[in-house]
Every structure is written in structure tokens, then in C-alpha cells.
User: Which sequence fits this backbone?
């Protein structure tokens, strides 16, 4: 399954994403965040080059962004 994590660059999201990537049932993770308080650097060190992870910038409050 593919998983979408909104706010994935924040405190909870950056702890959740590595745990999701370790699960066999998860094929890929997409992080959707407006990057106003978080940065993709929070996910460094989890093996991004090998992980099925993508990061999209946007705001869930904007219609059509997701």
C-alpha cells in the first residue's frame, strides 16, 4: 500500500515516516507538508536514497492541493 502523511516534516510526522518505511505492507510513503515549520532535513538519516519516499510541498487547506 502507498501511504500519504500530511504534515510529515513536523515532530510527529518525522517520527512516523521511518516506522512506516520499515513495514513490509508499505510500498511507498509520500510526505505532504507546507514546510512552514518543518524541513526535509528532518528526514535525513533514514536512507532516503533507498527508501520509497517522496516529498511534496503544499497546504491541505488549499482546495485541489492534495
Assistant:
Amino acid at each position: 500500500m502507498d501511504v500519504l502523511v500530511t504534515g510529515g516534516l513536523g515532530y510527529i510526522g518525522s517520527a512516523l515516516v521511518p516506522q512506516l518505511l520499515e513495514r513490509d505492507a508499505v510500498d511507498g510513503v509520500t510526505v505532504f507538508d507546507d514546510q512552514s515549520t518543518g524541513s526535509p532535513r528532518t528526514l535525513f538519516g533514514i536512507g532516503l536514497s533507498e527508501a520509497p519516499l517522496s516529498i511534496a510541498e503544499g497546504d491541505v487547506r488549499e482546495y485541489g492541493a492534495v
About this structure: Helices lie at 11-22. The first helix runs from residue 11 to 22. The chain has a mean pLDDT of 84. The two ends are 18 Å apart (CA to CA).
